Structure formats: structure tokens, C-alpha cells
Task: structure prediction
Amino acid sequence: MTDIKKYKNILVFVEQREGKIQNVSLELISKAKELSEKNKQQVYTFIPGYKIDETHAKECFRYGADKCFITNDELLKNYTTETYTKVVTNFIDKFKPEAVLFGATTIGRDLAPRVSARIHTGLTADCTSLDIDIESGNLLMTRPAFGGNILATIICPNHRPQMSTVRPGVMTKTIVKETKTIKIEYLNSSLTKDDVNIEILETVKTQSEKKNIEDANILISGGRGLGKKENIELLNNLAIQIGGMLSGSRAIVDNGWIESNYQVGQTGKTVRPEVYFACGISGAIQHIAGMEESELIIAINKNPEAPIFEVSDLGIVGDLNQILPLLTEELKTLKLKKEA
Amino acid sequence: MKIIVCIKQVPDTTEVKIDSKTGTLIREGIPSIINPDDKAGIEAAIQLKEKYDAHITVLCMGPSQAETALKEAYAMGADRVILLSDRAFAGSDTWATSLTLSYAIKKLDYDLIICGRQAIDGDTAQVGPQIAEHLNLPQVSYVTDIEKIDSYLKVKKIFEDGYQIIKIKSPCLITVLKEMNNPRYMTINKIFNICNKQIIENWTINDIDMDANLTGLKASPTQVKKIQTKSVKASGKVHNVEPQEGVKLIIDKLQEKFII
Amino acid sequence: MNFEFSEAHKLSQKMFRDFAENEVKPIADIIDEEERFPEENIPKMAKYGILGIPFPSEFGGQGADNLCYAMAVEELSRVCGTTGVIVSAHTSLCAAPIYEFGTPAQKEKYLIPLAKGEKLGAFGLTEPNAGTDAAAQQTVAVKKDDHYLINGSKIFITNAGYADIYVIMAMTDKSAGTRGISAFILEKDMPGFTIGKKELKLGIRGSATCELIFENVKIPLENLLGQEGKGFKIAMQTLDGGRIGIAAQALGIAQGAIDETIQYVKERKQFGKPISAFQNTQFQLADMQTKVDAARWLVYHAAFLKDKKQSYSKAAAQAKLFASETAMEVTTKAVQLFGGYGYTREYPVERMMRDAKITEIYEGTSEVQKMVIAANILK
Result:
């Protein structure tokens, strides 16, 4: 049985791609800082990669890290499961953190399960909130399940470290005010060529020029109720007029009316803009899970029973084919009046 | 080529609703389906079979009603279907589930194991990679295309912003996404075959030589401390009005919140 | 007395429904609009065995039964009456008589590709002067040394032009009345066999309904189906089975119309409420669904009797009579419940109403069905 007492401090696995630290890791460092203040532990950050240096460490400290560990190796230049699993597992074996946090990215979701299985500990995926249980000291990991219909709080009482993955955009990154002495430690990877058991033949970037809907302040989102691909234009016109961005539900992505990087929801992205227009979106739980934290939700749907109305701040039962163009026109008129 | 596809039968969570009076899930009448990512795995295996002449075993860990999922898998084109079911497995988290499945897989011959990326009820995406670890196999997750080249596979792995083409040696494990293909329908004669003959193999814990204390609730590192149905956020007003009036209400709201 | 479907039937129904929803429904409107035969769906249906459901696997079939076949036609017709009749005519009117009356050689040559869906089938009995009076055949087959020579024409033949195999009735002995009619198996490109005029129709507009013309068509002797002089009997028995298919088609069309209507009346608002809140709407739908459910059991029972190899002629006639009249009534009411919108092509109910009408006419008009039922009861 694991000697729980030997495990201390919270580790954040810092994910970098081509030397750029992913936002989700910074969000997790901030969260770890918050948790560490509760249980009086330290926040460790570990960045495996290639040509990782002080600049990366500084970013970690900016968001709340107490200590930063770096492992550089050419074999870590590109992510492969075995190399990363090995170095992370070695780190955990050596430093025995009581909790490890990963971003739930394609990398995190490939790496964390492998690490947890190698170590024989528990992993909780896609956590939407993390807390410390004062009595037991256990990490309370809350996550949606059953397609987002329920929230389950999971604990890992008898195994260490307690591992969890968190989706990008769920936690908020906060810059710490107090300055800290920067403590960096460089570790050897002890990797050999035999640790690479797959071969990357080609890497292709396809969406780097596209904008992130997570960064938008206003989202004009469409669902199946749009009726046809051509109606995306209605959303577009409004988006342009109001200074927002397009997004959509899984239904319209599946139909090919809009690309998958615009998808909001359980298997898409989590967004929390100032304003979220839900147009012709019925409001399936999987979709709501991705946008319910929006400041202001305005829903337009011809079905008065649509579940979206249960989360909207303002609901209009009506035909979006009529409402959207009228709204766009009205906004245009108001703008002209203002400028006059 | 020998392929094992791991599938899970799940409730169709897109249909699940919450009882507003009791705050609990309404589970009755929710159809059970093959987890969509897993179904894509079955289709991927069948396409490989058509191209390279493979034998497909579909393995499902679940209660006895999961037989329906296996029937569907067989009727789509699987050769062998196995239900892994035992009281001892109840309450297993992903660690225990993946370990149990790996014990079963050890009893089979394989070049490739295909798992769906994640199940729509658990949504963890952990079981596939964990099976790979228990069996000490190389893995690639988020695969949308598979090609066989001698004893290697060439797969396409997608990332948030692009993809990679990866070469991986058999035996290995991959996880696939439902976006990768359009699963075929069941064929009538296969439906009648699987429903009228005893084709599904029922494996229990004894059949896989597994110790009972390695599986089930007690062997699971993670435990559920609490479950709550999502609290319904207090909704704002819903207006069933003419378009002009609706637009006016929206504008008022936007002005109220200083958006415009 | 078991009203429960077997698991195999339930799973089959699920498959038919998914297939209909994803493959057939998306093109149902357009093939009606363009009067185009849905060629693209034939290989898809073949792949899953939909064109050979009730035939044993040794003949390329799926080894299922007539109940399963009826379910298939119903589910397809729910979204597209045209697709339902394509399958029905192929299965019941062409493949079935070869299965029931063919020689081993004929089954090998014709039934296997038909059941596999590699070839499509059709049936020709009706002539310009022989409709309900089917015995008044004018197409003639003269026996020569090593072949039959066929001259004449057929009209209103479903799947004409797209079918590769045709079961055709012709007069071999004019003096013998109905006992002078024989059945033959013809292939598409036999010299002298041409497809004539294509009918422009009120409904099932995607279905190919054409004239067949026979000008000195030489048929090998081994293409005689059954015995000489038994053709009329073969035709009548074949139509008995075909009636189950058409009854299932009518049933599907009716149910499809109700499903569309239910969705519409929940959304459409007048006088501040959805029209589903009005008692007239509710009462109409109650009547419609009750009649369709009654039709359903008549259809399934006829299929059940045929599967049990019991006498099913009366049951099939009853099913067709009742289901087709119900379909006409239900689809007409559906259009009425939709109001003005139901009359436009924006919604599918007007197509369903146009499709329903033919089910009261072909494969024996409702009047013929009454004759069959009465003859059975009064004997």
C-alpha cells in the first residue's frame, strides 16, 4: 500500500508544443497555487522538451509556481507517448508529488492515462473543479459524467499521486503579485533511442490561421435549427455587425456547415464569452456544458420547449430567419445614429 | 491480420433528461447503443478486413444486456464476439476496467487492438491507453486513418491544430474517433444468425485467470464521493413574440449590459 | 398467440429504420420532383440484403422471413413510397415466383442474383386490354422447336428498364382460356424486347413505370416458368404475396404521414397555442393512428400466415384493402391538418398523399381485393 504521507506538493505537467507553453498549463499552475494555499504545499512545475530554458520557467513563476524542473532531450522534441511517459513517471517516482495536474489536450489525454497505469494510481479526467478536503487532505476532483448530465466528485484515497486532467478554459490563469526567487532544476532524461517506439513520418498544421472561439467576447452560435448551410450567412452578418465570432453546435459541424474548430460543447470547446447567442440550438446537455458559463446567454428558437431556454438569460421564441436579419439591421441603424 | 476491437454499451446520453421535480436522471426508456467512438472502431476493423483480409474479435466488458451491442457488432461484420461479464467486475474504475480487459486480451491472438477514444457516459478517454500500458504495447490515440504496410501500420493522428502521420509496429493499440468513418448498417442474415444461434462467447473471471481482488470496486484507485445532477441555473424570461418585438427585447438587454 | 417480435426482427427493424432515415429520406423529395429512379440506393440495399430478405441463403437470400420483409417495405415506405415499391415489386413479384415455381437451373441462374441484389426484377401481367380482367391476355407465346416466340406488350410495369429479369405472362393456348396462359422468364437485352413509353404519374414518381414491347422475342424453352398453362395460377399466387408487400407500403406511407403531422402540430401556433392543443387535431390524430395500428396487425398477420405456410390469400387481400384505404384517408387528413403548408412541396405530406393513391389500385384494385375476400368467405 502506498505510504500516503511520503507524497507532498502539487505537480503541474507543463505542456509545450514547439517550445510554446500551452495556456492550459498556465491555468493549472494558477489553480495549483490556489490549492497549495489551502494545504500548505508547494507548486512544482515540470517541463519536458527540447531547448527549454529560463524563459519558460519565468512564465511558470509568473502564474504561481514555487519550483520549476526542466528536462531537455532531443528525443523529447516531438511528443511521443513512451518518451514522455517515461520522463514523467521517473519524475513522479523521484519527487513523489501528492497530486499531478495535466491539461486535457490531445497530448494530456494520451499521456496521463499511460502514466497513471504505469504508476498504478487513479486518474480523473476532464475535471471542472478541484478542491482540497480539509479533513482528509484528499483532492476533490469534480467532473461531468453521463454526457454532462451529472457532476461526480471523485477521490483517490489510497493511491498516490492523485492525478487529474483539466480542460483548457475551465480554470483561470492569474498572475501572482508577489515576486519570487526563481528556483530551476535541470534533470537528465535518461532516455535512449530504444524508448522511441513509434516513428513520426510527417507533421502537418492545418488550422493555425484560424481564430480561437475561446478568445471571442461575443459568439453568434448556430445549431440544427438554422435549417441549411446557407443560413450561416445570417449568423455571419450579425457577427460582423456586432463584432463577434461564429461558433456552432456539434450538429452543424457534423453536417459540414462549419468547421470543427468552431464547435462548442462536450466534445468541442468550452467557451465563456460576454455574450453567447444560441440560434436554432436546442440546448442538449452536451452543448450547454460548453457554454453555460457565458456571462449573457440569449437564445432564439422556434420551439418554446427547447431546453436552451432553461439556461438562457433572455429567450425569444421565434423564427431566426426573421429575427437575425432584423437584429442585424437594427444594430446597424443604432450604430449610424450614434456616429451621426 | 488479427484485430481485437474493444467496445462498450452505453446509454444514449444525448437522450438523457433530468427530472425537474426530483433532480435525478431519467434513465428509463433511454436506448442503449454501441459507444460511437467504438462503433467507428468496428467499422475501421471491417474496412481493414476488406482490404487486407483480417479476423475481427469484438470484446465487450459489461452486464448481460451488453449482448445487444455484440449482436450489432457481429451483424456489422465481426467474426468473433465475446462478452466479458462477471459480478466481480462491478464498480470498476478505468484502472480496474483496463486491467480486466487486458487479462482477457492476453487469452487472444492479435496484431492490432482498436479502442474508441472515449465513452459518452464516462467521457474519460483512459481505458484505451491504460490497456496499452498493462500489455506493454506502443499506442497512438486520436487516429482517423489506418493503413497496413507489412508488419507496420501507418496511422494518421489528429491534434487540435493539425495532424501527424505515424509509423507504428504491430502488435500495438490505437484509439479512434467517430469522425473517422460512417459505420455501416447491420446485414439481415447476420442479424438472424446471431439472434438464433449461440455465437456470443460468455467469459467470466475464471475464463481469464484473474484474481478477484484485482478488479471491481475494491481494486479501483478512484472512488465516487458524491454525485449531483447539474443544478439548473435559474433561467431568464422567455418571450413568445413577433420578430420585431423580439429584436427590441434583445437590443434592450444588450444595452442594459453595456454590450452596445 | 404471441404479439412479441423476436429479437432478430427488432434488430432488423432498427436497421431498416436507420437505413431509411440516412440513405433514403434525404433524396425522397428530389427523386419525386425529378421523376428519377433512385439508382444510387440499389447497390446500398443489395449490400445489406434488403433485396433478398425472405429467401434462403442457398439462393443468395438473407434467410429471414416474410414478416421481416414486410417490416423492410414499411420502414422504407415511411420515408419514400417509391423505394418501398421498388423493393416490393422486385421481391414479391419477380424473385418470389422463381423461388416458388422455378427449376433448380432457373433458381441458380436468376434467383441467386436477384436475391443478392446484383440484378433487379420486375413482373409483367397487365396489358392495355387486360387490367382487372387479367385473363384477357393478348401477348402471345408460340412454341417452336427450340424456343418460344413472344409477341405483344405490357403496360404499367414497375421497375421497367432498370430491371434485368422479368417474369412475363403470355398466352400459349388461346383456346384454353385462363388455362392457356404461361409464365416466362425474360432478360433485359433479349433481342426484340424493348422498353416503351414511360408513364408520367400522380405519385411514386421516382418509380419507373413503363410499357414493355415484345417483337418476335425468342425465349429458350428452359425459360418457361412452371408448366405450360399454369401461368395464370402462378400470377394469382404471386399477386397474393405481392399484396403483402403493397399493404406494407401503404402502411409505411400512412405512418410516415402521421409522424410528420405530429411534429408539425406541436410546432405550428395559431391563436396563441400550438395546434396540437386543439381537440379537433387530437381527435383526428387519434382516429388516424388507430386505423394505422389496425392495418399494421393485418399486414403482419398476413406475413405470419405466409411464413407458417398456411393459406394467406384472404389475409393478404384484407391487409391490402384496409391498409391502402387507410393510407389514402390518413394522408389526406394529414394534408388537411397541415393546412396551406401541407399543400406545398415544402413539406412531404402532399407527396405521401399522392403516393398513397396507387396502393388502392395496383396489384389488384380494392374492388378485386373485395372479390377475393368475399370468394373466401362465401365458399
